[in-house]
Design goal:
One of its GO terms (molecular function) is DNA binding. With about 290 residues, this protein is an alpha+beta fold. It is built from 12 helices and 5 strands. α4 packs across α5 and α11 crosses α12. The protein is elongated, with a radius of gyration of 24 Å.
């Protein structure tokens, strides 16, 4: 919990990081890279502050205050202009936005992202015999491996994992730790909703699900939040009994609103079987 005393301290730390970041990036760019003619011999590397200000279309004094880490309000437009002047990569722009107190803007897919999606697809589909899947911001399946479709009875896309858990007893029965799993799903769903405060679909899903599941309604009213949770997960397999998996959850780099979930059977729980059809996972769902 952040106290009144810790809030100013966190602001100082954020501005200090911003100061070091902007100076480091400015010093890594040569005048020639941005089309400036370098007539004199420079004592310091990179661009001067006034050159960055000119390239960004902001005042020299204002940019100096920004790089000095002064407590000033920085608009998203200014962040974008300075990002362009410093030729920041996407991850650097996101970092700059956060240090300036803004959420990073959403990006439209480009060729690099399309290549990233292809890599994610190859990873998910090649993860067998262990399950793997990608879900969107609402918990709906975007892509699932063959073993995940078999084990969780989900299609290649469209199923909502949160809705499925609270409306299908057969899904809940797969988890010996039912209460822990349900609580984690709801807390993660609420945390996701806070990342997209203008999206009404979270409220619609929560409202419908509260009517269908009193248990969900009870957990939703607890207002617990958690990030992408990971750790051990016990799952009852059709033929092999309860098996312990390491569960890893991470955001998809090319689509940060999506989550990649990977299951890894613990070595003591691994079973013999074909690489593409692990024993005990049952027949693949349609």
């Amino acid at each position: 919990m952040q106290t009144a005393a810790s809030a100013p301290a966190s602001g100082l730390l954020r501005r200090a990081r911003l100061r070091h970041f902007l100076r480091a990036r400015r010093e890594q760019i040569t005048p020639e890279e941005v089309g400036l003619v370098n007539f004199d011999r420079r004592r310091t590397p990179g661009l001067r502050r006034e050159e960055v200000a000119a390239l960004a279309g902001v005042g020299v004094s204002w940019y100096t205050w920004l790089e000095q880490g002064r407590d000033i309000n920085v608009s998203e437009g200014i962040v974008n202009a300075v990002s362009n002047a410093l030729r920041l990569e996407d991850c650097e722009r996101d970092y700059f936005h956060r240090l300036a107190g803004h959420n990073p803007p959403p990006r439209t897919p480009d060729r690099g992202q399309e290549g990233g999606h292809a890599r994610m697809r190859a990873l998910v589909e090649g993860w067998s015999p262990n399950p793997a899947y990608i879900t969107d911001r609402y918990g709906r399946v975007e892509l699932a491996s063959r073993s995940a479709r078999s084990l969780f009875h989900i299609g290649t896309r469209g199923h909502n994992c949160v809705v499925k858990f609270f409306t299908e007893s057969a899904t809940r029965e797969k988890y010996p730790d039912t209460e822990e799993v349900g609580r984690g799903l709801v807390a993660q769903f609420r945390a996701q909703s806070a990342r997209f405060p203008q999206d009404p679909e979270f409220g619609r899903i929560a409202g419908r699900l509260s009517e269908m599941s009193p248990h969900f309604a009870e957990l939703w009213d607890c207002h617990e939040v958690v990030g992408p949770n990971q750790g051990l997960r016990r799952i009852a397999l059709p033929q092999a009994g309860v098996t312990v998996f390491d569960r890893v959850v991470m955001r998809v780099p090319e689509s940060p609103e999506s989550l990649l979930t990977l299951y890894i059977a613990q070595s003591g729980a691994e079973r013999a079987g074909r690489r593409d059809e692990p024993a005990g996972f049952g027949a693949e769902a349609a």
